[in-house]
Amino acid sequence: MADHAAADVDIETSRKFLSLLHQAGLVGITWPVEFGGQGRGESDENVFAVESARYNLPLKVFRLGLGTVGPAILELGTVEQKTSFCRDILTGDAIWCQLFSEPEAGSDLAGIRTSATRVDGGYVVRGQKVWTSGAHLADRALLLARTDPDVPKHAGLTMFLIDMHQPEITVRPLPDVSGRAFFNEVLIDGAFVPESMTLGEVGAGWAAAGRTLQHERAAVSTGLGKGDRDTDTISVKNLLNLARTHGRFLGDTARADLLDLLVADRLVGHLRLRLTQEAEAGTAIGARGSIVKLLMGRNEIEAAKTASRVLGPLAVTGRDPGGSPTDVMQTVIGSPGLAIAGGTEEIQKNIVAERILGLPREPDPLRQRPFRELRVTGDNTSALGVQE
Predict the structure, then answer these.
(1) Structure confidence by residue, pLDDT tens digits, 69-124
(2) Looking at residue 110, what DSSP letter applies?
(3) For the packed helices 289-311 and 328-340, what is the interaxial angle rounded to 10 degrees?
(4) What total of structural domains would you count in the chain?
(5) Distance in angstroms (rounded) separating the CA atoms of residues 85 and 71
(6) Which domain holds residue 179?
(7) Do 148 and 105 lie in a common domain?
(8) Residues 344, 282: one domain?
(9) Largest CB tally within 10 Å, which of 153, 155, 178, 208?
(10) pLDDT higher at 240 or 31
(11) pTM of the prediction?
């Protein structure tokens, strides 16, 4: 486990807080009772989300498990998997990460090369993952790997639940420009996954990954445990308070920027509420969650730009005139992350175009070629026409 863990997250405090929430019936509100949840409706969960959004809850390390992995297991997993893992997610006894992205796959997730080779009792996994949030803290991971290179790339993938404490798994931090490491690369050299830890059907990993990413986008959109814009360091409210505290003059342009930011945030909030109400009424949200994700990513980047214009050096140096550190710089630096997490803006646009607007998919002449005949480089996949 990496040394930067303690600097980023107080694990024990977070774990205790989540456990207390669970005891109070305020986490896993819509999850089935038999798997540790409360068995209630979307409206109840929305009430708690609205009320808790006034605070920055210490749940960062558990967001992936609560918002992405848990819902994926509930939808795709066996009864044994749900029984084994869901309650531990809700109580904070297990931390999860998501092993999807790879250095040579880029935004083409179906181009991953990490292999899962069938052996007696399960699979042996070899490969490399990257940009993995929380891998240095994780007990388990949701893993997407290639189980069959002799079929088209989308057809040869399988989803697994893998133990991160195996010696064959190495986690290396990837520091950002601030020196903090929220992302990691993960090297897997012969780790074992039991057959019982296959999530969904063998070869159906692409569909499983798509459903999982829908849960992730929903979790990013709701900002589970993050607080709402009013509690954000680059909210309109906080920027105004900081500007007044430090004597920053706000001209007409800065005021207009803040007003635009406020309106954009309120519009996204109303859209999120509408989708929640539709879900409660039984209407499938589907790809429309990508609209919220797309708009939130844009708003985060615009908020960072506005913070820089309004606060000047304070937003750049990360220290106020009195010399004490602020969170503004870290938030400004990290603002592009939300636009990338759960799929880049380009990915979201494709989803909206194809699945909501009904526009035709871009032609892919290589889509039906066996993966073994493809060379994957960055975002581009080209045919080799030879066996690797």
Answers:
(1) 999 999 999 999 999 999 999 999 999 999 999 998 867 889 999 999 999 999 99
(2) G
(3) 150
(4) 3
(5) 11
(6) 97-204
(7) yes
(8) yes
(9) 153
(10) 31
(11) 0.82
